[in-house]
Amino acid sequence: MLLVIRTLFLTLIVVATAPILAQSFTSDHPGQYTQEDITAGSRVYSAQCQFCHGRDGDQISGIDLRRGVFRQTLDDAGLARVIKSGSAAGMPPFSLSDADLTGIIAFMRAAFDGTASILVGDVARGKELFEGKGTCASCHRVGATGPLTAPPLNDIGLARTPAALERSIRDPSSAMQPINRPTRIVMLDGSTINGRRLNEDTATVQLIDDSARLRSIAKRDIRTLDIATVSPMPAYADSLTDAEISDLVGYLLTLRVR
Fold it and tell me: pTM of this prediction?
């Protein structure tokens, strides 16, 4: 009888305390972190973690904190436990305030980008969105697969931060690089060429036209050259949820081949 009462008592403790832990470190993210948490977390990481894990979080074999790669799957609650209690692999325990603990987890989930306001989501789900609902693969090339009408994304994970990727997905026109702007050329003979500008010098304009052909156009043969400031890429702020954008950012960050 005493054993039954003791078991019931312990069960009630676990049930009562679980919501408290989940409230602070839940694995079901809404898709956003506060900028204050991320900024504070970057300071804690530099002071407490960088010596062992390195500036980019990949100094320990089998672990890449920036990309969320651990030796076992860890949600926020699991990360909090490891940070506070240490690990059998040799990581010491850290005595951090709740605010610092929240901050360092936010900093890791934001892929070490102190300017980000979004977590880095699930890579597999992001790839599915890229190829499916988001229809990104209908315009962007990855590796040897896909069209050339939009900029290729082979190294986008090196070229852009999570914050920049998020901005490009939510509002493409605000993040469009000048070299990638849509271009409309009217030639002296009246013919029109539309495409994506690749390069420009004093004598020529190089672009990928709408038929995915590389063109080098002599400026002396051009009547007018118009460069648009509005991206042809649709804005996904309303068509994708915060969590879906998080996942898409997570996948794009893995594209790192020069």
Answer: 0.62
